[in-house]
UniProtKB/TrEMBL annotation:
Transmembrane segments: 50-72, 84-106
Record pathway: Lipid metabolism; fatty acid beta-oxidation
Pfam families: Carn_acyltransf (PF00755), CPT_N (PF16484)
Protein source organism: Sander lucioperca
Domain (Choline/carnitine acyltransferase) ranges: 158-594, 599-720
Protein name listed in UniProt: carnitine O-palmitoyltransferase
GO cellular component, one term: mitochondrial outer membrane
InterPro entries found in the cross-reference section: Carn_acyl_trans (IPR000542), CAT-like_dom_sf (IPR023213), Cho/carn_acyl_trans (IPR039551), Cho/carn_acyl_trans_2 (IPR042231), CPT_N (IPR032476)
Source domain of life: Eukaryota
Keywords recorded for this protein, A-Z: Acyltransferase, Fatty acid metabolism, Lipid metabolism, Membrane, Mitochondrion, Transferase, Transmembrane, Transmembrane helix, Transport
Reactions performed catalytically: (R)-carnitine + hexadecanoyl-CoA = O-hexadecanoyl-(R)-carnitine + CoA
GO MF assignments: carnitine O-palmitoyltransferase activity
Record-stated family: Belongs to the carnitine/choline acetyltransferase family.
GO biological process, one term: carnitine metabolic process
Length: 737
């Protein structure tokens, strides 16, 4: 009865005296609370917009400047308005102008300071006086208590490298991969491009860099992600895993309750810009000094990728008060607020348990509906327009696409099994990456997946942001879940169920037979792709960054060299290698390619990494030049050949960004498994790794069964042996003795 009571705002009956309105006071109360909540959010967003807009100034600083200026004028009997307006108004206007001037000066000085990247070239562990002075100035001009987006207007724009430098570095990167004849041919193409077409294309890029916030990111988002017509499942989406060794509860609904509540708390902080600005952590000595762009955070929630015939779009809602939940072929809409407040973990567990206990059957076509998001994009776009543009199908689709995020209550069990580590982790990874191909809504910014035994993970769509953004959220969730939120001895969320909480709403569909055929067709494509994925995840426990640092080399460079050695042993040759580096030191920056060939030394790798981070990379510049050439209708043999080469080894490190949230010294069991992605090339490998604490490195390897040249488990063995062999070269045992 509680559900029906909440659903009707008012009732009316016809009497001999006319219409008798009987207002439902509880329903009106809920409407009032909902409106109050909405206005609170609007006010908070308005306030945050003002605070961010005037940063590094503040309203308090405004009052100080205005009052000080007016006091000075009064004491000296000055008239700043020259008699045109009253002294009070003149004082306020001049004081405001002075305050704005101070803000603009501070902001531009900070932008100039952040445009200097000499600190990246300083040896680890040493800080020169010039860098110390620079750090002090950055701190001074950064203001007090910055919010998440406070630094956006102070971040420099991504610079456009010169054609000459990019061409030179490209030739350096491909030289080890080519014999003399091939290299001479590539050298000729490069020099011709550098002399003739290149400067013309460069002019357009320079023009764009002056006009746009970032000369790369919008084209990268559009052409690399949104215009792709192939499946985004496996090819684009990626995953994040749970703790490796800790299993907080085996109750599925309880784990979902804590995780969903933690995610909603993160969203609240994000809406209020209360999350601390993200800083570069590559140098501990500069921690909390160098801000990074936070623009990608804006689409984390209430967003979805919407298919189009030629290109997809990103749909974002300012707010969403519900989530969408999938379980055993049914979709549910679950409200996250009641009585004007966010549901508590035990109340969310109550809602999840109601869904688990629901014995209703899926409606025709509903069970495998999400397969549309796993297959080719064009059939999904046409089906969406034909069958989901109106009526109950549109309302139900809106409930999914406009949800804060999606949740899958998976009916399988996944977990790291110490007795069978290889099979258990491989199965876990494949489930997060693609599942059954119809039980994750792959278009959603991210899906929280909670398995039957309480293990969980994420599947994230890639176009809206890169992995570190979702990783920041996931670290927050894992840090809150077992320790701060906790569970009872029985494994339930802390607290009590709500006696009057309305239940979840089961979505209704009317999917015709023709649409069901499209769904089955998409599912066939998706299953073929999923079945071809060869995943292998293994924890490397022989040593970690603690021992690598004793070799006086970068852990990332050490691992990258090991990957090159493993690749050579696996295939008998080196290949183009992709390593992602972030460019978020610049406004709206995303990623750049670090390594394009064999890295002959750790120092070389580190230098290339620094160049990529500071806007001097090769790949994105060449990509944008290619886009300009297409707009101009110019054909460039050089760009065509360079950009058509496949990345047969694609690598990425999952960074731990909030190390202060996890005390791995006292609680070494709370280590993350990290995350991974599918293979980029049909005959290549995708490798993700996370350096956890001092003694553990987790590797995630993917390839395709259909390729006779690859085997993820074989490659994993090669990586492990390469790590051990490179360590032996340093002869640490002899040095210790």
């Amino acid at each position: 009865m509680a559900e029906a009571h909440q659903a009707v705002a008012f009732q009316f009956t016809v009497t001999p005296d006319g219409i008798d309105l009987q207002l439902c006071h509880e329903a009106l109360r809920q409407i009032y609370l909902s409106g109050l909540h909405s206005w609170k959010k609007r006010f908070i967003r308005f306030k945050n917009g003002v605070m961010t807009g005037v940063y590094p100034g503040s309203p308090g600083g405004f009052m100080v400047v205005v009052v000080s200026y007016m006091s000075y004028n009064k004491y000296n009997q000055l008239d700043p308005s020259l008699g045109l307006i009253a002294k009070l108004v003149g004082g306020v206007l001049v004081g405001t102008g002075l305050w704005v001037t101070i803000i603009m000066v501070m902001r531009n000085v900070l932008k100039c300071l952040l445009s200097w990247h000499g600190w990246m070239h300083a040896p680890h562990g040493s800080v020169s006086w010039s860098i110390r002075l620079w750090m002090l100035l950055v701190k001074v001009f950064s203001g007090r208590k910055p919010m998440l987006y406070s630094f956006q207007n102070s971040l420099p724009r991504l610079p456009v490298p010169t054609i000459k430098d990019t061409c030179r570095r490209h030739l350096e990167s491909v030289r080890p991969l080519m014999d003399d004849e091939k290299y001479e041919r590539m050298e000729g193409l490069t020099k011709d491009f550098e002399k003739n077409l290149g400067p013309r294309l460069q002019w357009y890029l320079k023009l764009k860099s002056w006009w746009a916030s970032n000369y790369v990111s919008d084209w990268w988002e559009e052409y690399i992600y949104l215009r792709g017509r192939g499946p985004i499942m496996v090819n684009s989406n990626y995953y994040a895993m749970d703790f490796l060794y800790v299993f907080p509860t085996s109750i599925q609904a309880a784990r979902a309750g804590n995780a969903i509540h933690a995610i909603m708390l993160y969203r609240r902080k994000l809406d209020r810009a209360q999350i601390k600005p993200m800083f570069n952590t590559s140098r501990l000595m500069l921690q909390n000094t160098i801000p990074m762009c936070s623009a990608q955070c804006e689409h984390m929630f209430n967003s979805s990728r919407v298919p189009g015939v030629d290109t997809d779009t990103l749909q974002h809602m300012n707010d969403s008060k519900h989530i969408a939940v999938y379980h055993k072929g049914r979709f549910f809409k679950v409200w996250m607020f009641y009585d004007g407040r966010l549901l508590l973990p035990r109340e969310i567990e109550q809602q999840m348990q109601r869904i688990l206990d629901d014995q209703s059957e899926p409606l025709p076509g509903e069970e495998k509906l999400a397969a549309l998001t796993a297959g080719e994009r064009t059939p999904w776009a046409k089906a969406r327009e034909t069958y989901f543009a109106r009526g109950k199908n549109k309302q139900s689709l809106d409930a999914i696409e406009k949800a804060a995020f999606c949740v899958t209550l998976d009916d399988t069990e996944q977990r790291y099994d110490a007795d069978n580590p290889v099979k258990s982790l491989d199965s876990y990874a494949k489930s997060l990456l693609h599942g059954k191909c119809y039980d994750r809504w792959f278009d959603k910014t991210f899906n929280l997946i909670v398995f039957k035994n309480g293990t969980m993970g994420l599947n994230a769509e890639h176009s809206w942001a890169d992995a570190p953004i979702i990783g920041h959220l996931w670290e927050h969730v894992l840090s809150l879940d077992p320790i701060k939120l906790g569970y009872t001895e029985e494994g339930h969320c802390c607290g009590e169920p709500h006696p009057n909480l309305p239940g979840p709403l089961k979505l209704s569909w009317d999917i015709p037979a023709e649409c069901q055929e499209v769904i089955e067709s998409s599912l066939t494509v998706a299953r073929t792709l999923a079945d071809d994925v060869d995943s292998h995840i293994f924890p490397f426990k022989d040593f970690g960054k603690g021992l690598i640092k004793k070799c006086r080399t970068s852990p990332d460079a050490f691992i990258q060299i090991a990957l090159q050695l493993a690749q050579y042993r696996d295939k008998g040759k080196f290949c183009l290698t992709y390593e992602a580096s972030m460019t978020r030191l610049f406004r709206e920056g995303r990623t750049e390619t670090v390594s394009c060939s064999l890295l002959v030394a750790a120092e070389k790798h580190q230098n290339m990494y620094r160049m990529a981070m500071t806007g001097e990379g090769i790949d994105r510049h060449l990509f944008c030049l290619y886009v300009v050439s297409k707009y101009l209708g110019e054909d460039s043999p050089f760009l065509k050949e360079v950009l058509s080469e496949p990345w047969r080894l694609s690598t990425s490190q999952t960074p731990m960004q909030q190390v202060e949230l996890f005390d791995l010294v006292r609680h070494p069991e709370f280590v993350s498994s990290g995350g991974g992605f599918g293979p980029v090339a049909d005959d290549g490998y995708g490798v993700s790794y996370i350096i956890v604490g001092e003694n553990l490195i987790n590797f995630h390897i993917s390839s395709k069964h259909s390729s006779p040249e690859t085997d993820s488990h074989r490659f994993g063995g090669n990586i492990r042996q390469a790590m051990l062999d490179i360590l032996d070269l340093f002869q640490l045992d002899k040095k210790t003795k």
